[in-house]
Amino acid sequence: MIRAYSVNDHTLVCTPLPSGAALPANTIWIDMFEPTVEEDAHVETLAGLSIPTRDEMRNIEDSSRLYSENHALYLTVPILFAAGTDTPGIAPITFVATKEHLVTVRYTEPLPFTLYAARSAKPGNDLVFPKCDPLTIFFGLIESVTDRIAELLENVVQRLDAESTRLISGSSDKRPMSTKDFRLALKLIAKEGDFLSKIRESLSGFGRLLAYLQSSPAVTTDRPSHSTWLKSLERDVQSLSDHVSYLAERTVFLLDTVVGLVSVEQNGIIKVLSLAAVVFMPPTLVASIYGMNFSHMPELAWLLGYPWAIGMMIIAAILPLVYFRTRGWL
């Protein structure tokens, strides 16, 4: 699918671009979503560019992700998608910027792209102006992505706060945490840690991207506003990276807390079982003695023999408990 966005006063107008159709007037952004081979060839003809394939976009080398060719910037960066679901992912998106057009090639549907397109279509959006260039759209998209990451990190903070409160203060009904509760806590914290690793990977890609643009004369010299915007984005990315590092350390702390609580519970169970074994050992000894089949045992013919044996068992059970209490083991 190809969408062409053209500038109309202070808004972007989206026009689906079927195969073989010409670009609308004032087209500034060509968005390619899951393009076919025919659509790739069509955009290459219209924009006079070489569109990277999906395999080329997956190349992890910086020299293959960030480069300039025929006065066009080719910038590939990993971006989160489906972040609001249970199965978030990360996939590369390529930005091709020339003086006339910005071309985006993507095979996922990140929410920031949808939000930016919807917002820029509204009058008074402060994103689009009549003489804006492709880099303005590019920086707007990157800013939309970083804003979304900031929102996602706030959601992570809230979830970790709730889990931390539950672990430290206990459940709302004041019952002891069960094995099921500990398993749930481990899964939740591990899930947040994995999500943070995806955010960190995306921010790392943005950091390399912005550093590359800082050294590009086409970005820093054409318009002073671009240089200012670029520095602002660098500060935002660095701030978000620091926040991700803090949250990652917090997830490690919470994981250690869960493991520690599990160890305490296990030690408590083992302690109870050990004490039970020690407490019932003397009564078992008494019962074993009086359960022997000897003919000459004085207590066998004694009228109080049975109560005597039961009393000995009770005393033998109480004495270890008193001793443990005195030593502070209970």
TrEMBL record:
The residue ranges crossing the membrane are: 272-292, 304-324
Quote the subcellular location field of this record.
Cell inner membrane
Keywords from UniProt, A to Z, are: Cell inner membrane, Cell membrane, Ion transport, Magnesium, Membrane, Transmembrane, Transmembrane helix, Transport
Q: Which family does it belong to?
A: Belongs to the CorA metal ion transporter (MIT) (TC 1.A.35) family.
User: Which reaction(s) are listed as its catalytic activity?
Assistant: Mg(2+)(in) = Mg(2+)(out)
Naming one, the record's GO cellular component terms include: plasma membrane
Q: What is this protein called?
A: Magnesium transport protein CorA
Q: Mostly located where? A: membrane
Question: Which Pfam families would you find in this protein's record?
Answer: CorA (PF01544)
Q: Which organism is it from?
A: Mesorhizobium zhangyense
Keyword Ubl conjugation attributed: no
